Amino acid sequence: MATLTSNLSLSSQCTIPKDYPAHGCVVEEIEGLIRVHKDGYVERAQVVPCVSASTMSAELNVTSGDMVIDSVTNTWARLYVPICKQKVPLLVYFHGGGFCVGSAAWSCYHDFLARLSAKVGCVIMSVNYRLAPENPLPAPYDDGIKAIMWVLHNQHNKGSASTSTEWWSAKCNLSSVFLGGDSAGANIAYNVATRLAACDGAALRPLNLKGLILIQPFFGGEERTGSEAQSWGSALNLAASDTYWRLALPCGANRDHPWCNPLGKGCLKLDQLNLLRFRTLVCISEMDILKDRNMEFCDALRRAGKRVEYGMFKGVGHAFQILSKSQLSKTRTKEMMALLKSFIIMAQ
């Protein structure tokens, strides 16, 4: 999802009892969202309801269903398929949540991606990946690669009696594939893309990655930015951001680790990454603590000769398109969907 913080007040039912002596003291906590105990026991509050794939407005003309990618790791995906006659692009999407919370079944994601599928006219595969701290980075990146390989496997086994994916795979134009996500999901999309860029193109055929869609990408760093010092009152604050990174990064790593800070010292330079064939769209919120990092990321891509464009959404904060019900947020969400549609059309 977006990276949630406790000031959301999404539900009065999200309070977690303070007394869990059986698991020792609490060592990390984002109040109302996640609590990690000394013995490693993790509590997550149900701040957003999960809904089934069949929960869909008939007006959208979109069908949806869930598919298992890896039963061992419990990685699965929710597919959204617009009802149409022609093949359409495929967007592989990763939800946010600071790598620690969130689900492809959350109602806010289900609603947003169903509407996005209808608006853009593309199949969307929303990947439900493993969460930290039980599964720290790079587990979500591994799950992202596995999702791509699963798509390829189904393509190579078309017509097999053992597959039940025709309802969605038959609609996919695999020569026009996009990776995307919001917040931590955008971080995952970027890191999956850098891995795919290092692959032999022949190994991915017929899949052709056309572009990256990064919505409020969750990056960090030890040195603070100007926007991180602001108190915007949106869905992500600095304390929560730091906690997410402590829970998600490998033991001993700080926020200048390349998975957190792709522009940090010791990172592979962007001009050395084989991303030139990927167009990149970055969606930035004006009232987001990540605004400056997102802008710096775009500037660095541009200086490295990459094809990047961005949209700045005025007057809204982190995850507005998922969490906020204000009229301004609804207007900005429509603008975001229009921008994504234009990007996908131009990148094909």
Automatic annotation (TrEMBL):
MF terms from GO for this chain are:
hydrolase activity
Highest taxon, organism lineage: Eukaryota
Membrane-spanning ranges: none
Q: Which residues form the Alpha/beta hydrolase fold-3 domain?
A: 91-321
Q: Which Pfam families match?
A: Abhydrolase_3
Family assignment from sequence similarity: Belongs to the 'GDXG' lipolytic enzyme family.
Name of the molecule in the record: Alpha/beta hydrolase fold-3 domain-containing protein
